[in-house]
Amino acid sequence: MSDATDLPEAENTGQASQGSAAGGNGDGSRLIPLPIEDELKSSYLTYAMSVIVSRALPDVRDGLKPSQRRILVAMNDLNLTPGAARVKCAKICGDTSGNYHPHGESVIYPTLVRMAQEWNMRYVLIDKQGNFGSIAGLPPAAMRYTEARLSPYAAMMLEDLDLDTVDFVPTYDERRLEPTVLPSKFPNLLVNGATGIAVGMSTEIPPHNLTEICDALIALIDDPEITIDELMEIVPGPDFPTGGIICGRRGIRQGYLTGHGTIVIRARAVIEEYRDNRYRIIIKEIPFQQQRDKIEERIAELVTEGKIPGIANIRNESDLKEPVRIVLELKREADPEIVLNQLYEYSPLQQTYSINLLALVDGKPRLLNFKELLQEFVRHRVTVIRRKTQHLLSKARQRKHTVEGLLLALANIDEVIRVIRTSETQAQAKERLMAIPCPAAMLARALGEEGFAQFQKERGIAEEYFLTPVQADAILRMTLGHLVNLEQEKLVSEHRNLLENIKEYNRILSDEKNILEIIKQELTEIKDKYGDPRRTEISDQEVGAFNIEELIPDEMMVVSISSAGYIKRTPVSAYRAQRRGGKGLKGARVDDEDPIEHVFLAGTHDYLLFFTNLGRVHWRKVYELPELPRDAKGRAIVNLLSLQPDEKVAACRPVRDFSLPDHYLLFATARGLVKKTALSAYGRPVRGGIIAIKLREGDELVGAVVTKKGDEVLLATEKGMAIRFRESDVRPMGRAAAGVKGISLIGDDRVVGLVVAEPDACLLTVCAHGYGKRTPIGASTAGPVADEEIEKPEDETEATASDEEVPEEETSVEEPEADESEEAEEGEVGSQFYYRTQRRGGKGIRDIKTDARNGPVVGVAVVHEDDEILMMTAKGKTQRLRVSEIRLVGRNTKGVRLMTLDEGDTVVAVKRIPAEPGNSADNRE
């Protein structure tokens, strides 16, 4: 943007004269240079958040948008309770617009109308009178012709609003205060649902049955650990005001578990034989948010177009008693079942409803599951009841204090009257009243034994007591009528009741369980008074169910995760094989602040288990990950997984089938611990993840492999040590166990790799500086281990001198791309065993030399002759290499150059590419 100096002289002079008044840059100019990108971003975000928070999304506590809440508050101000006379909707809309809502009454009336339509609201919040539209699609009458008042459900939502139960904020003109949320004894969001479209997000919360929701809330209070599947035994699914049939339960369960789901709703239709071999289809209920007349028109169009040729006549027999009754008479030769299926397929009689449980939680949009919706309502009601009780307790204590002063005055009325009569001013009378001593005995007679004991507990034990300023003011305001005996008895009774109320309030506030009991009692009363039968039927028959995996080819994918949490998948075919020692291909766009941290291969049909640094595990299908080009940065993983603020992915593992018998997930941590848990224990996805392993302080997860009976595993450390032991040496444990020692580490060494030791395969070890080696694993050399030894503490097996000090043999390397100075050592290639089996918990044997040339070990992989490997560096470069090009060498060697690195770059991961790219079912690294 140009500044003022670029303008013509006359124009510039005129503008400069206004520069100081307009703010400007301080040089007389009124133009402020501002990047348009920043201004658009700031303005759009402000607009978006305003729409999200102030207009489009409901609050999770009362289930209302601001416009709906303001209408109910305005009606409450007008005392339009369920027992009051209805008033014109024009009056309601005018008061709402003038007092609370700044967007005009033209948008208020449609909102009010919808809250009164029983085909849109499962439990209407507005008790209407007049034409408010119909399920046929007819519009409502103008607001000057209709009347309304609050329904009993809305009255429950406004109950206790004046008892300091919720926060209030100034209205748009700052003349009044409006509540930020309603106390909402009635679970409005859960039973009436909500629909809203904001900027970049939308919500679609279905309505439910009040009886079922009350039972589910009570069950949640009784058992906070109840699962969503157990809640679904109480609430099987949505209950729409228009009835209908929900086809299948899978979409409901998915929506309740994840917050996102899709269900299919069908109209309720029956087939009747009204003549010999003549049938008709009677439609009695239609899908939610569909209009009866438009459905009838669409069916007529389908008959005209010839898509449903079996219908002979369409007749609308709907009336006030039966709002939906569409009769379809069929031709004699028509099969009624086929015609009905055609109606479901082509007409609005079958609709897809998207569940999107998005609501404002603490002022921010949040996707919730079904249990979290229930928890948020209970949390809100706990807060409301606590604040209400605290308010009543404060009022009761203030009144008790005043009543005590009045009783004290009545007990010594002669002296009180004398002091007042002889005082010249009220201020003097107040001071003299406060100076009158009241003997403890007189006060005890006035307050009673229990009241005087409570008084002494608050004021302390003394021979005489004096009035407080508040009590003196109350005495001065006391009329002569209070001197009669009947009034004295009323004060004594009131004091006694106040003591009981204060005791009850303190009991409620002493334990949250008491508040929860009140909530349960309220829910039981609501259910008994307003509960009704379910309208929507849930069928076990799935409609249009298909397996999405059948449309997705099963191919190997390279999945990478950066340090900052960006993830992507790329077909393995995008990485062409290169010769050993090359510099690799450009991979993900990364910088020094966000290096690649995890790389692995998995089939598109595999489940991907994400193990986090907090010891939890999350699920995703590989095909659900974003597929991006090789050089793309990726997408933020927080958009895929429900990670906690301080949670990040530590390891990943592809799994094809969780139900394999006698299969286990075996974990290894950086501090050398291992843990084995049945694979089936991880086969049930839960939003937010489940516990995978209990990590000790300072430890982290390194890897996880799937093992079966008879397998052996191999741990590799950063300083080049390795240990091989049988998986049966690790007893099966629960998901929350911490594990047992797998290898004894020396100094600051740490475990970097875990693989299943295949006797006919080789172990590829790769170091940070691009060097590595391939050594045969060999057959098991361990003898049988007694079963009872598994439960005993394991002895630490020291590495033998021969294992530690294998002499090196230098061999020349005839690779044209390698450096001339590069040396490759070939050790005991002719030996029978290279990695002997040891007992778990030993120090292991030397695997590779980790000197200044090699750097520390970054990873290991089990490879076969026909396989390929994929290496990735911290700066995003990738190298795909044939295993056959890597020479077989012994254990205690330095290896050869596998990849030439740029200055400052290091290898961060190595992964095996099987010879058959589609075969990932064995889950081998």
Automatic annotation (TrEMBL):
GO molecular function: ATP binding; DNA binding; DNA negative supercoiling activity
GO cellular component: chromosome; cytoplasm; DNA topoisomerase type II (double strand cut, ATP-hydrolyzing) complex
Keyword annotations of the record: ATP-binding, Coiled coil, Cytoplasm, DNA-binding, Isomerase, Nucleotide-binding, Topoisomerase
Residue ranges, annotated region (Disordered): 1-30, 777-836
Active site: 145 (o-(5'-phospho-dna)-tyrosine intermediate)
Gene3D superfamilies reported in the protein's UniProt record: 3.30.1360.40, DNA gyrase/topoisomerase IV, subunit A, C-terminal, Topoisomerase II, domain 5, Topoisomerase, domain 3
Family assignment from sequence similarity: Belongs to the type II topoisomerase GyrA/ParC subunit family.
Name recorded for this polypeptide: DNA gyrase subunit A
Organism, as annotated: Thermogutta terrifontis
